[in-house]
């Protein structure tokens, strides 16, 4: 497995990371045994970075990863790096309440994550969103205290803009920013990506297949009960028709290279810079195998031009999230 360093101060990691969110209900029910088997298959393939959030399934995802790591061979378990997001408050039904990134909350969330994961430290710890009521300096400062105490190795950011990135970096070295980046979500290219590169901060790109939309397997009416996508504007009505037409155009490019749509979409993200690490959200072994095939896809300048002609910048219809 090829390696990439997460920023100038972060750890060396596998070129692909495994995003585990979908194993805990975001896209409808997932089979526990298959989820654990997928984590094991990822580790066996050389993937080291496992990404989670303490609010995924209200702790379910961390417990699942902890169980998978305990059952993995020692060499794979020791090589695993865990990236954890925190700060989302949930009610008993799983609904979101608000964000809490106060210093005391940071340390409280961390204590529970360590317990659920069954580890002594978290490799990368980050607030899932900016808490509008707490200066980023206080949040990062609290995590920095946990770095000094040995409970966290590196500090990351998630879903924040240029001003927040600069302020955070003055408090403590930031290894990476986790943010959406794909062929149909290229907003970071304008100012966020250049800022991260200026400061030596890596990008951990989630949504590289836009939650399956450009993975080549999506069709109308696939979103079922409990699936986030049933309410996502990109997956609705005329927006979906438009976006699936983009996928069809991308499929023609993929067919010429004898690869799948998902593989060419992942390869495109990986080709955008050595400082970008794509997260793949596979929750089944067959989808994991397909995603790993992207590592064998070599894109020439001509290939990239054809891909971007098939899916022009800003061509997607509908936002990622509903307005609320």
From TrEMBL:
GO cellular component, one term: cytoplasm
Superkingdom of the source species: Bacteria
InterPro entries per UniProt: Aldo-Keto_reductase, NAD(P)_OxRdtase_dom_sf, NADP_OxRdtase_dom
Recorded GO MF terms: oxidoreductase activity
Domain NADP-dependent oxidoreductase: 16-310
Pfam families: Aldo_ket_red
SUPFAM superfamilies, sorted: NAD(P)-linked oxidoreductase
Keyword tags: Oxidoreductase
Name of this chain's protein: Putative oxidoreductases (Related to aryl-alcohol dehydrogenases)
Annotated source species: Solimicrobium silvestre
């Amino acid at each position: 497995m090829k390696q990439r360093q997460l920023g100038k101060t972060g750890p060396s990691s596998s070129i692909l990371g495994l995003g585990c969110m979908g194993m805990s209900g975001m896209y409808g029910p997932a089979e526990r045994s298959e989820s654990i088997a997928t984590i094991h298959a990822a580790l066996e393939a050389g993937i080291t970075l496992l990404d989670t959030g303490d609010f995924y399934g209200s702790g379910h995802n961390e417990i699942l990863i902890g169980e998978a790591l305990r059952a993995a061979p020692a060499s794979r378990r020791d090589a695993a790096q865990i990236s954890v997001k925190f700060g989302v408050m949930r009610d008993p039904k799983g609904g979101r309440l608000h964000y809490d990134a106060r210093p005391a909350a940071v340390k409280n969330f961390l204590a529970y994550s360590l317990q659920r994961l069954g580890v002594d430290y978290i490799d990368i710890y980050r607030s899932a969103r900016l808490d509008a009521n707490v200066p980023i300096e206080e949040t990062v400062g609290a995590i920095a205290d946990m770095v000094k105490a040995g409970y966290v190795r590196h500090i990351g950011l998630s879903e924040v803009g240029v001003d927040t990135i600069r302020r955070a970096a003055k408090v403590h070295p930031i290894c990476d920013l986790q943010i959406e980046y794909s062929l149909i979500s290229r907003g970071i290219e304008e100012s966020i990506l250049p800022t991260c590169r200026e400061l030596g901060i890596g990008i951990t790109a989630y949504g590289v297949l836009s939650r399956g939309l450009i993975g080549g397997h999506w069709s109308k009416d696939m979103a079922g009960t409990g699936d986030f996508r049933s309410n996502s504007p990109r997956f609705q009505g005329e927006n979906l028709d438009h976006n699936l037409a983009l996928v069809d155009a991308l499929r023609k490019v993929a067919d010429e290279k004898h690869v799948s749509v998902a593989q060419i979409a992942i390869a495109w993200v990986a080709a955008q810079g050595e400082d970008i690490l794509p997260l793949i959200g596979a929750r089944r072994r067959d989808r994991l195998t397909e995603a790993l095939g992207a590592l064998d896809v070599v894109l020439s300048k001509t290939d990239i031009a054809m891909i971007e002609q098939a899916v022009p910048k800003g061509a997607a219809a509908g936002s990622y999230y509903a307005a609320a």
